[in-house]
Amino acid sequence: MQELSHSQFLDVLKQRNIEIYARDGRLQLTAPPGAVDAQLRAELTRRKPELLDALQGVKNSADLGSLTRMERSEKIPQTHAQQGLWLIDHFSPGNVAYNIPEAFLLDAPVNLEILQRAADALLKRHETLRTSFYEEEGELFQSVWPHAETTVEFTDLSVVIESNRDSILHNLIRQQARRSFDLQRAPLVRFHLFRLSENRHVIFFNIHHIIADRRSLTILHEELNAFYQAYIRNESVRLPELAVQYADYALWASKRLADGTMGDQIEYWKGKLAGAPAFLELPFSRPYPEQRTAWGATIPVVVSATVRDALSEIGRQESATMFMTLLAAFALLIYLNSGVEDFCIGSPFTHRNQVETESIIGLFVNMLAFRCRMNKNLSFRELLQLVRATALEAYENSDIPFQELVRVLKPDPRTMRSPLFQIMFGFDSQAESKTVGFEQIDTEPGTARFDLTLQMAERPEGLAGTFEYCTDLFEVSDIERIARQFPILLDWIVQHPNQPVSSYELPGLASSNHGAIKPERQSEISSRTMANFWSDRIDKLMQRLTHRS
After folding, report:
1. Which one, out of 163, 481, 486, 541, has a CA that is 20 to 30 A from the CA of 35?
2. Distance CA 202, CA 173 (A)
């Protein structure tokens, strides 16, 4: 196989959540625990001279500058990602789809008073946890409070009959996960301790997505544990001082977007998404409602290590990452079930591009739209090549905030559907890092942010994931069928990667047109007052922000 180019090699690193930088003639990187093994470190050493040249060139051309403490004399704007979540909450008050609940089982005694001290210290350390949001004359801002308090709530389940304990715990966690936040009041995080017995506890926290992303969750529970362990031993806490806070990033990002250097990226997306259908018409069991709720459910999916390794080999042969390979397979699954040949799949992209952001709790995620064009005569290898090219282009043009892209492209404002895409794909290339002594447990809140989402993760035993779906649209049997189809499709792919996709056979397809919804369904979409409000709101907001800059 031809050796990966430097840009392709950097893309592989990015898909493993490894960020690499050039500073003062040295390579520097940040990576999840275990992501950089001996083989990869040797490859980095071998490529060092060329990588230094490439990275220094990228930095000079982008002129990002170093993220430092910013002057706080001016009001702190919301980042574009935060603006999107603020508008969702404003449009649908009490929406809990963007709550992020986490729970960890700890086989040890827990001192509630010390845990409270640890939570207080965490809020003091991270400004994000003391941040609220507000609107003033049509503009959106965030406010950092000097002090904010949260009470670690406590429930003693040790008095409950053991046979009932797990079900009661699950119900209580579901209730906590569904408690809404008021974005105008800090803190936007809650903690709860459940005692199952003297030496067995569950530590639960719930945080709103407007102040956190996936990396933030790891920071939160690792530092909470660090504070707790130090306090319980009456020791000093050994955490490095934060060089910057999220508010500094928000001010920096606002100035960078206003400098007008992203025109080329805007033009790229205009061309890439030109003529793309506004909606993906999946074979819904029910008519699309006038106002879709946030309620949803999940169905698990598991893929064996044998199939995973075979998929990885196909990807290696095509210089594609596992993310690209699974994205292509998901697109094929959607095509086979819908018959739609042109649609977009959304995927979150982490924008912690600077070393200073690595230890900050905050929202550093941008959504990317991957346009998928299907053809029954394509082989999977050919489809993967197309998806790979689309992904690499998207990465190169990933600086444009999704909300800005929506404003520029002006999708149909007459519908409540998510703009540009209604289905999402996510992939974790590494098993989640775990703090020693903690075992993560299920906190599924029963919500769905999109019509359909496939979230996959790599595990030692293979691939594991879930199909999350909106219960307004699908029957559970619909998603159970799709979840059964996906491993079968992956197995077919590894056996027949060169055959046309029209020859792929899956159980439960509705007909020869794969159960496609007729195009005239789109004509049923009527004008909706609240949807017009949404579109106008974004447009006016962006106009004001442009005038301010």
Report:
1. 486
2. 10
CATH T-level assignment (fold) for domain 6-62: Arc Repressor Mutant, subunit A (1.10.10)
Token pair of 25, please? Answer: 């003639």
CA distance 165 to 15: 40
Query: Read out DSSP for 299-341?
Result: EEEEEEHHHHHHHHHHHHHTT--HHHHHHHHHHHHHHHHH--S
Q: Please write down the long-range contacts of 70-74, taking CB distance under 8 Å and 24 or more positions apart.
A: 70/244, 70/247, 70/248, 70/251, 70/252, 71/251, 72/247, 74/251
Show Cβ contacts of residue 190 under 8 Å, excluding neighbours closer than 6 positions: 150, 153, 176, 179, 205, 206, 207
Does CATH place domain 295-431+445-508 in 3.40.50.170? no
Query: Using 50, 70 and 90 to split pLDDT, how confident is the model at 382?
Result: very high
Query: What is the average pLDDT across 127-138?
Result: 95
Residues 6+ apart with CB under 8 A from 520: none
| Residues 222 and 125: beta-carbon distance below 8 Å | no
Question: Angle at Cα 277 formed by Cα 275 and Cα 282, nearest 5°?
Answer: 160
Please choose, from the candidates 139, 123, 239, 248, the residue with its C-alpha nearest in 3D space to the C-alpha of residue 186: 123
CA–CA dist 311, 157 (Å, integer): 45
In the prediction, which pLDDT does 543 show?
A: 47
- Tell me: domain 76-248, CATH 3.30.559.10, correct? yes
Quick one: DSSP state of residue 447?
B
Strand, coil or helix: what is 231? helix
State the Cα–Cα distance between residues 188 and 176, nearest whole angstrom: 13
Contact status, residue 76 vs residue 143, Cβ threshold 8 Å: yes
222 CB neighbour count, 10 Å cutoff: 16
CATH 3.30.559.30 residue spans of the chain: 295-431+445-508
Report the range of poorest mean pLDDT among 78-82, 186-190, 348-352, 353-357: 353-357
Tokens of 65: 């500058």
Please report, for residues 67, 259, 260, 402, 455, the alpha-carbon distance to residue 63 in angstroms, rounded to integers and kept in the order given: 12, 11, 13, 22, 34
The long-range contacts involving 306-311, CB below 8 angstroms and separated by at least 24 positions, are: 306/462, 307/462, 307/463, 307/487, 307/490, 307/491, 307/494, 308/458, 308/462, 308/463, 310/494, 311/490, 311/493, 311/494
pLDDT given at position 44: 76
pLDDT number for residue 87: 86
For residue 101, list its beta bridge partners.
206
| Alpha helices in 150-302, H assignment, sequence order | 162-177, 214-232, 246-258, 263-272
Q: What are phi and psi of 422, to 5 degrees?
A: -120, 0
pTM for this model (two decimals)? 0.78
